[in-house]
Amino acid sequence: EVQLVQSGGDLVQPGGSLRLSCAAFGYTVGDHYMDWVRQAPGKGLEWVGRTRHKTGGYFTEYAESVKGRFAISRDESKNSVFLQMNNLRTEDTAVYYCVRWISGNPDCWGQGTLVTVSS
Amino acid sequence: DIVLTQSPDSLAVSLGERATINCRSSQSVPHNSNYQNYLTWYQQKPGQPPKVLIYWTSIRAFGVPDRFSGSGSGTDFTLTISGLQPEDVALYYCQQYYSPPYNFGQGTKVEIK
User: Kind of pairing, strands A94-102 and A80-85?
Assistant: First the structure.
C-alpha cells in the first residue's frame, strides 16, 4: 500500500527553523513529483513547492511567499522528502501536507503535520 | 500566475439532487496531447487531508463514485455531484497544475438543505 507518513511539526518562534519529513512507503520516492501544500487554520489550500522526480533532475519550484526561506530535498536512502523551513513567520502557521503526483494525478497525501509559529 | 475562482462559495442541496461547482481561471488552462486540461478537483472533510476526486479535468480517481464528474476546458470548469449523498458534505477545491504557482481555488462548501 502506498503511504506518506509525515513528521516534524512543532511550535517554533518567529525567525526560527524547522524541518518537516515525509516518508514514502510502497514506492520509490525518486520516481515521482512531490509537492508540499499547506493550510492555515480555517483557511484554504496553498501550494508551497514542488520537487520533480529523479528523471527531472529533482528540479524544485516554490511559491513566492516561501522562496528563499524554504527548501525541498530528498534522501533516497530514507525514501523521504523534506521541507526545510527557515526564517519562519507567524503567517507560516499551518498544517503542511506532502503530496505524490503520478501521471497528472495527485493520488496520495500525507496525514499532515502542524507548524505553529508564535512567540 | 493563473488564479482560480470558484463559485459559489457555499451551496445547500437536497439529498439526491444535483450540486454544481464552477471553477473559472484567470487565463486558459492548457491541455495535454489528449486535450485534457491540467485541472484537478479535491474533496476535503474536517480534520482530513484533501482527497483527489477528478484529475485531467474529467478522469475520476480510483474508488470515486460515479456521481462525481468533471468537465470543462479553457477557462471554465465544473464539478458535478449527481445525486447528493450525506457523505458528500465537505469542502471542494479545484487546482491547476500546468504552471507554477500551482494555485487552488478558494474552496466551495457543500451542505445538505
Answer: unpaired
| Cell numbers linked to B26 | 484567470
What chain B residue is nearest to A48 in terms of C-alpha separation?
B101
What's the pLDDT score for residue B23? Answer: 98
Residues 32-91 of B with CB under 8 A from A: 32, 36, 38, 40, 42, 44, 49-52, 55-56, 59, 61-62
Q: Do A45 and B93 touch (CB under 8 A)?
A: yes
**A42-99 pLDDT, tens digit each:** 999 999 999 999 899 999 999 999 999 999 999 999 999 999 999 999 999 999 999 9
The set of cell numbers assigned to A112 is 499532515
Neighboring chain B residues of A112 at a CB cutoff of 8 Å:
49
Give the distance from residue B48's alpha carbon to the nearest chain A alpha carbon, in angstroms.
Answer: 7
* A60 and A50 Cβ atoms separated by less than 8 Å: yes
Residue B9 DSSP code: S
The alpha carbon of residue A16 is apart from the nearest alpha carbon of chain B, in Å, by 25
> Dihedral through CA A77, CA A78, CA A83, CA A88, nearest 10?
-110
Closest residue by Cα to residue B3 from B21, B26, B22: B26
Determine contact, residues A22/A34, Cβ cutoff 8 Å: yes
Strand partners, A5: A23
